[in-house]
From TrEMBL, chains A, B, C, D:
Coiled coil: none annotated. InterPro entries: Aminotrans_V_dom, PyrdxlP-dep_Trfase, PyrdxlP-dep_Trfase_major, PyrdxlP-dep_Trfase_small, SP_NH2Trfase/AEP_transaminase. Keywords: Aminotransferase, Pyridoxal phosphate, Transferase. Its cofactor is pyridoxal 5'-phosphate. Belongs to the class-V pyridoxal-phosphate-dependent aminotransferase family. SUPFAM superfamilies: PLP-dependent transferases (SSF53383). It comes from the Bacteria. It comes from Pseudazoarcus pumilus. Residues 51-290 form the Aminotransferase class V domain. Substrate binds at R357. One of its GO terms (biological process) is glycine biosynthetic process, by transamination of glyoxylate. The modification N6-(pyridoxal phosphate)lysine is found at K212. This is Serine--glyoxylate aminotransferase.
Length: 412, 412, 412, 412
């Protein structure tokens, strides 16, 4: 028997910024019997999924679904449009943009990695506390008069920091520079939580994954692709097969895939799309914004710095909390895990041990967040962190003052 | 599709005093395929269940398992030992003892219904704020020199009030009176939450159900029966068949039942027994006691009266909260349901609208209770109830000061 | 871990005449979280269930849903309309009618038990190979000029023999005799497999259960009741409370029950009703009739006697197969269980060891039955039973010649 | 609601050679809540999985687990050991070896594709009816005196034909030629059905997937890698990141992965490993061999050619059945799907429409196969195919004569 099937009393609180808590409805859908991926039912399912996922990305163009985690979709994006030796312009917003940058390097792509310089008084890198600065991108593109830069790569919602980036501004920057570079955006943790508009914002490749706003377990990832990206892919010399868009696009026409898809996770995706579209994407975004505001009210009351230094780009998905210098944030997380059966997100890379992350996404509601904030507040206190005031009270005040507008159980 | 399979965001908080939240492990077990209730596997399962459930009741004597809810087990207890016209002495501790009393009357049994007189300053009946007064029972039994009273019937944990009763004291009262009456105890909502000792306390028939401390959905109920009760059942003239112990006892010898048992709920019972015995009954009791203390800390901080007026018999299963006169407790509950997707227990019978009940049982942990108390506190405030202070803060203080001792996820 | 969660390769074939194999869809529904049985969602569910189940019984009158197995609903029927000492006329069609008769006796009701006399050349009682003979009932009622007989009790589908009874004919017999007796019918294993018409056939109390045609696990049972039965219940002097219709009828008006209902099984009932009504009751009946015909083709090819001696009343639910004298049918069943992981129904009561029963109900299709017949045929051969020819071939011939008309996967 | 959750009566028979029917136990495990892939529980799970999967591959060396389907693991194998322009020697045994060959070409690897020439009297390519001819490989390697060939790539169990290949013989051929080429083997559909010995047979990279013998849904795939393969990977110049072994090996040391793993499928893998090792690998292999023999007995009785022309390498996983010339095998499959709710495998690539495939793997037992063969036999007849005799009878005869030795329900 799986040790996971053991029985501490009560449910674990999985309050990391993804994998998010999976709604039971999705777990139930995933337990349907696996079907023949070449049979007639599958084609019907496939076509329904491909149409539905376009609505989530707000695109009329194709969305590729990979049986792979989000990291695979990063590679797919680069491998389809770039060739070894191509130059791509990336922007450091945190750990995940850094990993994507590292991947590009491994793939033989030349990179430039823009960022804001320095650290601030918290000791954290400034660029890990802010979103993309579109003016830096515009400046660099203007310098690239020979159009060596093949693509601009940015992260929409930095899962390691809790800062989003203004993608429309990046698009404007590229246009203002009159540069032909493709715009590639990672919204792995932003999709279906934070507003995202693939077509309207002129994104060429959007990368996402299943285990965040879509509320699925990990294992599926996406490339939403513009006609310009498809055109570019025909020139790419990067060796690839699994990630290659061409055969998938051909096969998708009838609702199938060229190789075995991730059938049972696709059942879950079907449910997720239905749940999200039924509530309405704008309602879903507002719901996450409100949760974020409630959580930030708590962090502010504690007197601890929110990692995202720019209120204009606070993430609706997660909130990074900077712990006082000299306090090991991971020790606090460990205590909370052991005393209160809750997982909070760890500080990654350059901010390891200096912060923790509270996820407010997935199968969640106000009381889940009150539980989360209670657990965090008790953990901080038990760890000896001085807090200015009750975050729990502040969050209650916020939630009382701002009623939830959607995603509620129907009144009887 | 079942409306219940709809998708408000997040899990409902079922904080009524039963049916309690069912652990996923039990729901998973219940989804195993139904087997032949006359086949060889079933007999093995049956014998394992019958041995396990004895440990939960702390008895070496038989426990009858009915495919029926707890109300059925009440009837079974009366129907097996009493005959129409027999006199039984019952004690009013609240709504459920009153319902049992009403049932006895319907069955043609003569009853006397002891209670404490009057109402107190809250306007609530005094007898609905206390446990059984064993001295009243002793007094009445002493008067019954001709031994007309066939049985004494009391409720161990009054689900409608949050007061327990001292069963050992009732036993002592019967013995002190030198009276041969059978002792019949309803611990439907007490079993596997509050200490209960069928053999040691000399109980003749213990009635319980599946949907409280055993953490199953409703549908199974129990009669734990002493040799004296079995002897008495041979004289009973109450017409009965479904409830009759004799055929069940005979069939149980090989692990079977005389009629179709509730197979899939029995799978759940198997898991429940395994979970409880693995943690240890005393640990389970302590866990519920601690939760009760935390919740009462909150209610005290609010400045609202706890319905159970006798701290010696506070229930570890639920806490009744009396709302101020003139405030409709059901309106508060409705607001909490609609705003925060949480169910609290309603005031029943004589206390309808005057109180609500917080369940602290089933698949639960500290953070579940913090969510619960947050929801209740917000609901009180939004309903205009003046509260003295932060119950949420008081509960956090209690939980921080008193670490949980069992039922925790194993440290890694 | 539950031993049932062990891992023989492949699924067990549960081909007994109930509990029937439960569709995964129903098991999934049953795993939804338990809700507050006094909350607003529950009332909506309850009203939907109560309306839906009427359609299954073909009645405009109330259907009582008990958290109990079918045996409980037998008792409920008797306890609500009879008083101790009343006379009821019952008819022996097999083991289950005998058990109901025994129950009536235990409840203090006087009974007469009609039957066909004698045994035939198979050594089996003739009355266990036929349906109810309505003329015997009419004759007896005509003799009862003082109308001492309070009710006529018959079984619609004898689960122990595979013979149905003509309920409309019984109704006509009662009417022809001009007798006021109530008509009480057990269709525990017939409902939702064989045509049944509570209102049209003038049934006063119909008893049924969850674990047969409704394809649920055991644990729920039913009384469909006519206005005349309700009227009669007001005179009944049988002590009862759990089974009493009055409080349930009152509470059902708003979709609730007077005591805790079997919540998670009700979720399953919801799915079952939806599945059955969507296919259409007549289609469901035809589907079972066709299965029965296919199975009987096999038994005929084997040259073994079908237990039901009257082709006009062959059960669409199960087929009883008489084994040659001197062969222990239970030994054959055991071998099949061990070699082929299939459960067949045992011979009960007077036919123990002389026959086995093949269930063709529940979550089943043509290939399930081909598997079943293959297993039975191999078991017969391995047990040394001489068979005349290939039952498997005969069933294939039948199924090829008679295409299934409903309950199929939608063509793509 | 998912259309898949509709309700044809009974379970679909998924008798394709993978994805195989998933045992309920595995589906249940997959429905456990998703946990933090960086938390302490996950590391324990990861280490247990990595140790267990080694036993399945019979290796003491690392096994890489990818969140990807089998096609991804093909690419991973090539990408880690080859560089663009490298020469690999592949062998055409059917559709899947052809797809792998095509992939190698897309990745910029030069290939040679050995095969047996011509078609035989069935009109099918001879090389699609046989396993790898090791002598052809030895011959080619001996010619390669300058050791240009970097790797030899063969398929262990050709899912498109039902022929296995003698991997030990390929190893001997390489050794006899004194050639340093790596041996890379696809046993995607062979693992945990057919005997496979990564270490003993000197395989350098073994590729496999989750959705065949491991009985999981698709979505996980594997590279088992020898020290020599790891050494070779350090020289590879193929751009890659997701597939790169180095970071995964490093991260696996503590039971974690460098990017988000497929958590819920890993729960299923845990169960699969436990089920397989508990039965014993040799028992599992024998069970599949016996099933294959039973199915082939049926095909022989029908008088239809088994696609695998060499009895020495019959697959224990699936059997390819060649339909008479002029008969569209896909039309037969369609009829079977619509009439009997069973999926059979289609003819792929060069044999499309000329054959169908019967899978005998996954959650299966003798009666499942009897159902399968009955469905196939009825489908053949209804399609007008003349068959020589009863395949169903032949399979029953085989199964009766050869009792199953493991994977049975424990005798009671």
């Amino acid at each position: 028997m799986l040790t996971l099937d053991a029985h501490p009393s009560g449910r674990h609180f999985l309050q990391i910024p993804g994998p998010s808590p999976v709604p039971d409805r999705i777990l139930r859908a995933m337990s349907l019997p696996t079907i023949d991926h070449r049979g007639p039912e599958f084609g019907v399912l496939g076509q329904k999924l491909l149409a539905g996922i376009q609505q989530i990305f707000k695109t009329r163009h194709p969305v590729i679904i990979y049986p792979a985690s989000g990291t695979g979709a990063w590679e797919a994006a680069l491998a389809n449009v770039a060739s070894p030796g191509d130059l791509v312009l990336m922007y450091e917003t945190g750990h995940f943009s850094s990993l994507w940058h590292k991947m590009a390097t491994r793939l033989g792509v030349k990179t430039e990695f823009l960022s804001l310089p320095g650290t601030d008084d918290t000791g954290l890198p400034v660029t890990w506390r802010n979103g993309v600065q579109a003016d830096l991108i515009e400046k660099r593109l203007r310098e690239d008069s020979s159009h060596q830069i093949r693509a601009v790569c940015v992260v929409h919602n930095e899962t390691s920091t809790g800062a989003t980036s203004d993608i429309a501004a990046v698009r404007r920057a590229i246009d203002a520079a009159g540069h032909p570079a493709l715009l590639m955006v990672d919204t792995i943790s932003g999709l279906a939580c934070a507003d995202f508009r693939h077509d309207e914002w002129g994104v060429d490749v959007t990368i996402s994954g299943s285990q965040k706003g879509l509320m699925l377990p990990p294992g599926i990832s996406f490339n939403a692709i513009s006609p310009k990206a498809i055109e570019a892919s025909k020139q790419s010399k990067m060796p690839k097969s699994y990630w290659a868009w061409d055969e998938i696009l051909e096969s998708n026409k009838t609702g199938y895939w060229p190789y075995t898809p991730n059938t049972n996770l696709l059942y879950g995706l079907h449910e997720a799309i239905e749940m999200i579209l039924e509530e309405g994407l704008d309602n879903v975004f507002a719901r996450h914004q409100r949760w974020g505001a409630g959580v930030r009210a708590a962090v502010n009351a504690w007197g601890l710095p929110i990692q995202c230094a720019d209120p204009a780009v606070y993430s609706p998905v997660l909130t990074g909390v900077i712990t006082p210098a000299g306090v090991d944030a991971d020790a606090i997380r460990r205590l909370i895990y052991q005393r209160f059966d809750m997982s909070l997100g760890m500080g990654l890379g350059k901010v390891k041990g200096r912060m923790f992350r509270i996820g407010h996404l997935g199968d969640c509601n106000d009381l889940t967040l009150m539980a989360t904030l209670s657990g965090a507040e008790m953990g901080l206190k038990l760890s000896g962190v001085k807090i200015a005031g009750s975050g729990v009270q502040a969050a209650m005040d916020y939630f009382m003052a701002h009623p939830q507008q959607s995603g509620l159980r129907a009144a009887a």
